[in-house]
Amino acid sequence: MNDDLVAALGEELFHAWRSGATLAPLSARHPAITIDDAYRISLHTLRRREAAGERVIGKKIGVTSKAVQQMLDVHQPDFGFLTDTMHHPDGATVSLATARLIQPRAEGEIAFMLKDDLHGTDITAEDVLDAAEWVAPCFEIVDSRVHDWEIRIQDTVADNASCGVFVVGATRSAPRALDLAAARMDLYRNGALACSGVGAAVQGHPAAAVAWLANTLGRFGIPFRSGELILSGSLAALVPVCAGDAFTMQIHGLGGCSIHFVE
Questions:
Q1: How many domains does the chain contain in total?
Q2: Which three-class secondary structure state does DSSP give residue 145?
Q3: Considering just the CA atoms, what is the radius of gyration of the chain in Å?
Q4: Rounded distance, CA 241 to CA 257, Å?
Q5: Contact criterion met (CB below 8 Å) for 171 and 137
Q6: How far apart are CA 163 and CA 82, in angstroms?
């Protein structure tokens, strides 16, 4: 895909995000699009957001669990960037309109805060645990600028891994204080249990998912930096979000977090 087309599609996604609109899938309009093309499109949109004042504070992996892959019919992980404007405090009330959320869905995850850089293509889960300062429960609210979530892997990568907003719980735990693969999450929507999952849902272990992301971005020359937050992927199926919804989540042994939505 030539640079002009990459830029044009990046502009489409940027303006869709700003206007709260959706687009026809890029993969349907451009069947030859590759994951590398999609990543270049994502970087174009990210540069536009940075030019508007946003700052990258971390990275995310998505579509890691079988439940999410089956729901979206996307059968490999995606990856994207987190910015400061996506971050909301634990317990926040978030306006769907102000946050430019179009068709949001909630995920319960484990977040990693890095104290050391990670750079390369042979990073292991043990390297991730060594480099992490703490882990915490996290809500990621994913969203898609692609109409009706009709995505292939190229669409979600181009759309910055369908990033929306996120909150991180106040409780911080040492990365090896708990068996993260066995950690159980219960996610509640308006007081009713919406889904449950365990850490092993994300590529066998959340740190293994983070290692995959480090190695994938390493092939593009993109490092993990000390002080960055890394979201490791949903532990269960995605839950649709509507105005008025209140979500709480508990990961046993790690704590919980909450978020509420209004128009």
A1: 1
A2: coil
A3: 17
A4: 16
A5: yes
A6: 8
- Rounded to whole angstroms, the Cα distance separating 102 from 21 reads 7
Residue 44 DSSP one-character state: H
* Residue 237 to residue 219: CA distance in whole angstroms: 29
pLDDT tens string 45-69: 999 999 999 999 999 987 665 665 5
**What percent helix, strand, coil does the chain show, rounded to 5?**
30, 30, 40
Least confident of 74-78, 87-91, 204-208, 222-226: 74-78
Angle of CA points 87, 66, 28, to nearest 5°? 80
Run of H or E including 136: strand 132-142
pLDDT of 249 strictly over 90 = yes
Helix (H, G, I), strand (E, B) or coil at 195: strand
pLDDT digits (tens, 9 = 90+) for 70-125: 666 665 677 899 999 999 999 999 999 999 999 999 999 999 999 999 999 999 99
Contact 140, 160 (CB under 8 A): no
User: Tell me, what's the pLDDT at 77?
Assistant: 74
Which residue, 148, 147, 153, is CA-closest to 39?
Answer: 153
Question: What whole-number distance in Å separates Cα of residue 16 and Cα of residue 171?
Answer: 35
Phi, psi at 56, each rounded to 5°: -70, 130
Q: What is the CATH number of the domain that holds 67?
A: 3.90.850.10
Sheet architecture: strand order including 246-251: 92-95, 255-262, 246-251, 184-189, 192-198
Distance CA 249, CA 49 (A): 30
Structural domain of 194? 3-262
Cα(45)–Cα(258) distance, integer angstroms: 29
Q: Parallel, antiparallel, or unpaired: how do β-strands 165-168 and 229-231 relate?
A: unpaired
How far is Cα 4 from Cα 185, in angstroms, rounded to an integer? 44
